[in-house]
Amino acid sequence: MNISKWIDESAEKFGDKPAIYSNYTSINYSQLKLETDKFASACKAAGIKKGDRVGICMINCIEAVISIFGAIKAGGIIVCIHPKLPLNKLREIIIDANINLLVSTQFYEFIPEISLGIYHHIQKDNNKNISFPWVAFGDWISSGVTNEPHQEGDIAALIYTSGSTGKAKGIISTHNNILFSTDAINQYLRNCQNDKVLSYLPLSFDYGLYQLFLTVSRGATLFLEEPPNFLKEITKYLKEKEISGFPGLRNLFTLLTSNADEQYPLIRYVTNTGDALHNDVIAKLKKMFPNAELFLMYGLTECKRVSYLPPSLVSKKINSVGVPLQGTSVIIKNDSGNECAPYEIGELYVTGPNVCQGYWNRPNETSSTFLFEQSVNTLRTGDLFYKDDEGFLYYVSRKDNSFKSNGFRIDPAGLEVAIKEKFPILMDVIVVGIPDNVAGQLVGLYLVTNISYSLEDSVVQYCNDEFEPWQRPKFILQKNHVPLTPSGKINRNEIVKLFINQFIKKESP
Questions:
Q1: Does the residue 66 lie in any domain?
Q2: To 10 degrees, the CA torsion angle through 281, 282, 284, 288?
Q3: In this structure, what CATH number is given to the domain that contains residue 165?
Q4: Looking at the structure, do residues 14 and 132 belong to the same domain, yes or no?
Q5: Fewest 10 Å CB contacts: which of 143, 152, 178, 476?
């Protein structure tokens, strides 16, 4: 099944119902089907064939949604790109994916220099000063026809990782991967045509892209907006639009609950993935959304979702990310390759239809991460976990985030939780490794708070009293904000750079 059939099915059942609200405009399901058909028709007329890559470099908007499903309906493979990526990263992705068609809200001067099979660039607004082939979005749509048949294909999307530690990698996601994951997540979220979901997550981020899939596949309404500059915008939406579903990341929920005086009883569920929420934030979310189920989830772009914690167990299974999705299985292995006993830490492996097909044009990395055995896909996650005696999963750290200091392994998550619980006035706590010629890496402690006085002495005293010598922070920064990736996750690499600039360079002769 081509996943763009969701649009046809929802148009037939809920034609006049709003599908997408964005930037003060809306489109219903019947209109969305018509526009999607015309986009697909225009793609084919321009020479787009099954398997060609269609880059979509746009802010969250209705045109982006039309482009996504129109390109997929034409048999294309979508590549959603964050429009605020640095130009070198943008160029990298366009070349790596060998983009055949680019849909963008702006013109990039380097595009004509790239020797790719780009047929056209589609810009939301017409720009007559550009000589390179460029079509306004309205002109592109108007050139197509309705009732465009679906072009079946295997691959639906290349979802690129942030590439913060090197070149971005395109993760190959098939129609079957997306269908399985969407249905499995909707089984526990129970989205239906009555739901209204608010998402500020970028479509280039799998968590954001799947909000689109989760809603249109059930005839729900998605409020698709750009990241807000201030929290009043979010609270206004939550109050006035009768929102029922609210996905978010740690930084958003930390800021939102810092002034948790309001309550929003109409919210049916709240979801979180990526960086784990601190327990005091969870408690505040429960007060802010008194009738909402809170779903704490874990996943990777390489397999979308791995597990979720049933909301009824959030208070009982503290810090757990729950149980695997129905239809999937996991195993935790130690360094010898044997299955770990309960409470023994090892690397998590995931098997199931949610596991993607590998990395685009990266056979060596694919073979070391994706294990294809007897027609079953298994993902080696690179994440450290343990399970309790009831089989519930607990995230310890990313192998990449853990580091060694003076020969001892440091797992940031445990230290972050302990400090945050001791000092609830802190909005967030982030532990990173700072390069050192002698120790390998030293502990850097990044404190996030909006208070005007320093907590450094108190935190140092607590760490000296409670932590082993190798766990104690060598450097501390206290700030009122968190550096974020384009997806909205905590940017640990940028935090490391802040420490280096603040301390290491000053110490250098």
A1: yes
A2: 130
A3: 3.40.50.980
A4: yes
A5: 152
The reported pTM is 0.85
CA dihedral sign, ordered 238, 283, 464, 344: negative
**pLDDT tens-digit readout, 256-312:** 998 768 899 999 999 999 888 989 999 999 999 999 999 999 999 999 999 999 999
Q: Which of 384, 400, 416 is the endpoint of a domain?
A: 400
Q: Letter for the amino acid at 440?
A: G
For 120-167, how does the pLDDT look when each residue is reduced to its tens digit (9 = 90+)? Answer: 566 665 555 655 667 788 888 988 898 888 888 899 999 998 644 467
Domain boundary among 144, 175, 206: 175
In which residue are the tokens 């450094």 written? 456
Distances (CA, A) of 77 to 68, 174, 360, 429: 9, 9, 12, 39
What is the C-alpha end-to-end distance of the chain, expressed in Å?
A: 63
CATH number, domain of 433, equals 3.30.300.30
Distances (CA, A) of 378 to 159, 330, 348: 18, 9, 10
Burial of 87 (0-12, 13-18, 19+ CB in 10 A): exposed
Structure tokens at 325: 């999705």
As a three-state string, the secondary structure of 364-412 is HHHHHHEEEECCEEEEEEEEEEEECCCCCEEEEEECCCCEEECCEEECH
Give me 206's structure tokens: 């799998």
In a domain, 19, yes or no: yes
What are the tokens at 374? 């007897």
Q: What is the CATH number of the domain that holds 389?
A: 2.30.38.10
Percent of the chain with pLDDT over 70: 92
Same domain, 342 and 386: yes
Task: Quote the DSSP letter at residue 125.
Answer: S
Are both 501 and 462 inside the same structural domain?
Answer: yes
